[in-house]
Amino acid sequence: MKKNTQIGIIQLAITADVTKNRTRLAEQITQCAKQGAQLVVLQELHDSPYFCQTEDVAMFNYAHPIPGEATDFYSKIAKDLHIVLVTSLFEKRAPGLYHNTAVVFETDGSIAGKYRKMHIPDDPAYYEKFYFTPGDLGFNPIETSVGKLGVLVCWDQWYPEAARLMAMNGADILIYPTAIGWESSDSDDEKQRQCSAWQIAQRAHAISNGLPVISVNRVGVEPDPSGATNGIQFWGTSFIAGAQGEILVQTSNSQEETIVVPVSLSRSEQVRQIWPFFRDRRIDAYGDILKRYGN
Prior knowledge:
The protein has 295 residues and is α+β, with helices and mostly antiparallel strands. The protein contains six helices and 17 strands. Helix 3 packs parallel to helix 4. The mean pLDDT is 97.
């Protein structure tokens, strides 16, 4: 494994035009590659608007089989640019069976692996349980030429169990394609608390597992098609944190940005030597973690 890996993150505002979105993503991925990126990470469900603001069967038309037309598009980009590419797609597994699926492409364009989102939210403006079946591939890192990628998706980022299991299974880095934002009625103080908690939770995963973390979010306002709310203002603030939770790079909360930075994937061993959390875990005393709640 290389001492430093050049990692690109792309934070974009998304429109209802899938072709336009893909064209713009291809341009930004190419920009990352020109800056030396070996690994490029995209945001959650980047091809389309965040359709989960409403429950509408017409939105299933955004889904595609894997492999299929969508993976062919991103496979070619990865191969042409000779990069590892992390994408986030709406998977049509079978009629009436859909997943929120991250697909990772190797430098030769082949599918290195995929991860199906395990934790599915069902909250106002985030009606994901209507669309997505919970993942069934487990928490298994995806082996690539740049390392073992612990790819999770959005709502997964709040669960320390998911990050821990990825780390225990050998992940070199934790990666979270994301779509999260504010509701317009929230106060400025509440908006700050939410965004801060979101970042703190993921930085804590970096610290407790001794792994770098990549979190790539959408940006911009997407309207609610039903008109029930004023839509979601996605808060951006994409970031990469090091193995001790330190912020290596962070984007704004309102602007599109494409950034490439070097990240050490080999530093984890040194960090784990000075903070030996894995050594001191009381695996003999954690049986109750499998319960829904305590006694």
